[in-house]
Amino acid sequence: MGRDLFDVSGRIALVTGASSGLGDNFARLLASRGATIVAAARRTDRLAVLVADIAKAGGKAHAVALDVADPLSVTTALADIVKNVGAPDIVVNNAGIGEVGPSIDLTEEDWRRTMGTNLDGAWRVAQGSARAMLAAGKGGAIVNIASVLGLRVAPQMLAYATAKAALIQLTEVLAIEWARYNIRVNAIAPGYIQTEINAGLFETERGKALIKRVPQQRIGAPSDLDGALLLLASDAGSFMTGSTVVVDGGHVVNSL
User: Fold this and answer.
1) Residue ranges for the chain with pLDDT beneath 70
2) In angstroms, rounded to a whole number, what is the distance separating the alpha carbons of residues 174 and 181?
3) C-beta of residue 178 within 8 angstroms of C-beta of residue 236
4) Sheet with 244-247, side-by-side order of all strands
5) Domain count within the chain
6) Is 241 exposed, middle or buried (0-12, 13-18, 19+ CB in 10 A)?
7) Sign, Cα dihedral of 188, 193, 197, 202
8) What is the pTM of this model?
9) Exactly one of 26, 160, 178, 192 is catalytic; which is it?
């Protein structure tokens, strides 16, 4: 049989925002495919459970405290990762927050908090990781977790949608610049994905109305992103850089 293009055995995968939701799922997925996981987040108590579960399943994982909105935290965490685990081969820039409310009431603090995590934080981790890859004499794959709201808009999510649109642009610029270093930079734009944070939303009238706009007439599960992540993180996507893979049940292309 031919080799498994989606295999990531022996590679070091840094996943930010790994303490819950999509990040937790991404870490478990890559571990199941043979990667050594560096699970990074602010909530280290949640990371301890994740690392223990991966070890119990026969995988390898390490927990690192990381606040992507804090430049010093990013620098310190990456230095710790390189020293104790090695320079990452795969980076999943997943850490993010969402602010919902009328744009007329959006405060400077709300705007900066969202940008500081969703855009600035992704840039910091990408740049720091790329520098570590270069110092180690290897390339790698960076996967930024964007959103369909970076491609279309929704009311009352101004800062979030703006940050995710900028993240897609950031992905494309870095892809052009870093191709010469054999560092691929791509993005995934998820649609509505059910996690513990938004679980109650889709039971409300507003949530049900959102589902009706999705051609597949359902919201996604975190596992619906598995294929896209493995494609972009593994050799299966070796000729892909600067791409944004939309995983949304047809939401973006639906003009109704």
Assistant:
1) 1-3, 197, 199, 255-256
2) 11
3) no
4) 60-65, 36-41, 12-16, 90-93, 140-145, 183-190, 244-247
5) 1
6) buried
7) positive
8) 0.95
9) 160
Domain extent, residue 201, equals: 12-246
Residue 209 domain flag:
yes
CATH (domain of 187): 3.40.50.720
Give a yes or no: residue 5 inside a domain. no
Find all residues with CB under 8 Å of 50, minimum gap 6, and list them. 18, 19, 24, 27, 28, 39, 61, 63
**Residue 160 a catalytic site member:** yes
Q: Cα separation of 102 and 144, whole Å?
A: 27
Decide if 119 is inside a domain.
yes
What's the pLDDT at 203? Answer: 76
Q: Is residue 1 part of a domain?
A: no
Report the relative pairing of strands 244-247 and 90-93 from DSSP bridges. unpaired
The pLDDT value given to residue 172: 98
108 half-sphere exposure, CB direction, 13 A CA radius: 0
Pairing of strands 90-93, 60-65: unpaired
